[in-house]
């Protein structure tokens, strides 16, 4: 007899675990998993040490330390002109992952439909399923990953409760345009649907473009949960400090789920997060430049190895079209790349409800040190002779 509950039995192991194990076994350069292999900024590490030494070591308030909620309100005002009340509209959670889960558990009833763009970040669908909701998928197609408003409209009906928008989008690097967000906003209002925007890559947008946030569109602040976290912006993916910004009634629903999941995140890291979130805007400009250089380096390396990268507008990922290379699918290509070429990438079929839709793609991460990317570039040349 299996002890495993039905609600988790179908989930399996994530593709990240599998590819990381294969990468380690073959000493491959790991451009699979999306975390930096370089040091986090000194100022944030010092702030965390100082918080621990100052004995900020007991439970934080369940909705987060007041100074952090205040700093997030301030930052959201500066970047987006959104005025969020730090007491009634902001909740600090254990990373964007808990924010996603608490939002879905707090808002979705069994039988409710949730619209998800695919390829999707891998925690959305299990969270919807654990809440008893039904995911409905909109497939973004390469190389533009554009949305067709008429096709999207067919997914909205009387059972639709929520739509999830991840912009900038992992794994495609797509940045939702103002026009696309406008179409989504119109459909949400027409069908009385809530929106959850996962904006963890909000500060990684390239080529002088701007990140647009759905909550800023007329009529949307009152039906949108904005989610972000420290991990990507401050190179501390292991800290798991995330937050939601939502109107008071929706915040209450998120809070009810959160209080019994984790109650609160790590107090000293929340204290250090105040220093992070209060950085001047020059910090964010430098961050974008830093990552743009890495993106361009990887794009060159992929092109010169004879691959076909799709230039990302944001995030720290590049999708590559591998459909013409003669592999059975993306998993076969990524296994070959890891074991024979010595570079690990992620097969994106795991991010589609119909894996065949991702079979012609591979995802590479460029949140890596120069020397890691240089070694990957050298090894990728082997593809030419392989
Ligand atoms: C789109 C997206 N959302 C959420 C997360 C998780 O963020 P956190 O580490 O803050 O839980 C990630 C991390 O990879 C992500 O890519």
Total DSSP helices: 14
Biggest sheet record: 7 strands, mixed
Average pLDDT metric:
96
Structural class: alpha/beta
- Briefly note the CATH topology name of the largest domain: Aspartate Aminotransferase, domain 2
Strand order of the largest sheet: 2-8-7-6-5-3-4
CATH H-tier superfamily of the largest domain: Type I PLP-dependent aspartate aminotransferase-like (Major domain)
The tally of beta strands, per DSSP, is 12
Q: How big is the Rg?
A: 21 Å
CATH class annotation of the largest domain: Alpha Beta
Structure in words:
It is a single chain. The protein has 386 residues and is an alpha/beta fold. It has 2 domains: 6-40 and 282-385, Alpha-Beta Complex (Aspartate Aminotransferase, domain 1); 42-279, Type I PLP-dependent aspartate aminotransferase-like (Major domain) (Aspartate Aminotransferase, domain 2). 40% of the residues lie in helices and 14% in strands. It contains 14 helices and 12 strands. It has helices at residues 6-9, 15-25, 42-53, 66-80, 95-107, 124-130, 149-153, 178-190, 248-261, 267-277, 281-304, 330-341, 370-380, 382-385; strands spanning 29-30, 90-93, 113-118, 134-139, 160-166, 194-198, 224-229, 242-245, 308-310, 317-321, 343-344, 361-365. The chain has a 7-stranded mixed sheet with strand order 2-8-7-6-5-3-4, with helices on both faces. A 3-stranded antiparallel sheet has the order 9-10-12. Strands 1-11 form a two-stranded parallel ribbon. β3, α6 (124-130) and β4 (134-139) form a beta-alpha-beta unit. α5 crosses α9 (248-261). The longest helix is centred in the last third of the chain and has 24 residues, at 281-304. The model has no long low-confidence stretch (mean pLDDT 96). It binds pyridoxal-5'-phosphate.
